[in-house]
Design a protein that fits this description.
The protein is of the alpha/beta class. It contains 14 helices and eight strands.
């Protein structure tokens, strides 16, 4: 083979790798923006075979999504610390014993993530505030920050709750997926005197850990480390935030707010080991509820009785 031909082949391989890295990093970076990508579609799709739902479970989920979406509620809004308009849905109980802020997950919707548990929570005398995370739904924002900025939004929403809490009821934070990570990160902010406890269902440990996991599962032939470095650099250029800034572990190490950790044992989206890591790091009173057969965000569907008992016991213990 001639030297020129070798150089052409080497140049072609280098160009192909460069194109792959750029395309991969652009796709991965778009996971954090409102703009959808092919990688987003792969990572976010939740058909029955991925969630492992029986036909009756799938139908129950669809019915409850529709019911919660159409439930009359007061639409409220606040201004975030960086000037964004954030939207929430206030659903007061008739004789409330507590108030629970509900934070949905990444690229999701409040009425989807909390569809199955909504009736249980409301019937258990909880006034509920379903928030729409920044860069989701009707809330403003161009980029998702995996909890780094969202945790400050939680603080702003707690300030709003205080205006709706003349009887000084106990306040809890509850989140699913990225919402769980968000409320865990929020515990290190100056709101702990108002918060009785946190319920964290299938949260991740950090933005970089979950992004690397998504890349490895959906871009199997890409050089993960290189794609991540370019993605992280691009993301920081747009937002001023690095994926490593979005971590629950530092907050958990100094947490004083009781936490109930929940996760599905078959979660292939946010691996269950991340909740174990959060649990081990948590310095506050804590409990752990693992539902062996549940996939991502489906613990209530797979063990309704166990889920309800754990949550009610948590309320009974910390309402005082």
């Amino acid at each position: 083979m001639s030297m020129n031909k070798k150089w052409l082949i080497a140049g072609g391989i280098t160009a192909a790798l460069a194109v792959g890295l750029i395309a991969g990093s652009e796709a991965a970076c778009s996971l954090a923006s409102r703009r959808k990508s092919k990688l987003f579609e792969l990572a976010q799709k939740k058909p029955k075979d991925i969630l492992g739902l029986r036909e009756d479970m799938s139908q129950a989920l669809a019915d409850n999504i529709e019911a919660l979406r159409n439930q009359p509620m007061e639409i409220v809004s606040i201004r975030s610390h960086d000037g964004l308009s954030l939207v929430g849905h206030w659903y007061p109980a008739e004789n409330p014993k507590r108030i629970v802020l509900m934070a949905h997950g990444w690229r999701s919707l409040w009425y989807r993530d909390f569809a199955m548990s909504a009736k249980f929570m409301h019937d258990s005398d909880c006034s509920l505030l379903y928030i729409e995370q920044r860069s989701h739904g009707e809330s403003e924002g161009d980029y998702i920050s995996y909890g780094a900025m969202e945790r400050h939004d939680i603080q702003s929403w707690v300030d709003f709750i205080l205006t709706r809490n003349p009887d000084d009821l106990p306040i809890y934070l509850c989140g699913i997926s990225m919402g769980a990570s968000t409320v865990l990160m929020a515990t290190e902010l100056p709101l702990k005197n108002h918060i009785k406890g946190v319920i964290a269902d299938c949260g991740f440990t950090s933005g970089d850990a979950i992004l690397k996991d998504i890349i490895s599962k959906n871009m199997r032939h890409a050089p993960i480390s290189a794609v991540f470095k370019i993605t992280d650099s691009t993301y920081k250029h747009h937002t001023g935030i690095a994926y490593g800034d979005c971590s629950t572990i530092p907050a958990m190490r100094k947490c004083t707010v009781p936490v109930l950790f929940i996760h599905g044992g078959r979660d292939d989206f946010v691996p269950a080991y991340m909740t174990y890591e959060n649990y081990e790091a948590c310095a506050a009173p804590k409990d752990l509820f693992i539902v062996p057969d549940a996939a991502h965000g489906t613990s209530y569907l797979f063990d309704k009785e166990g889920y309800e008992n754990k949550v009610l016991s948590f309320f009974d213990k910390y309402d005082k």
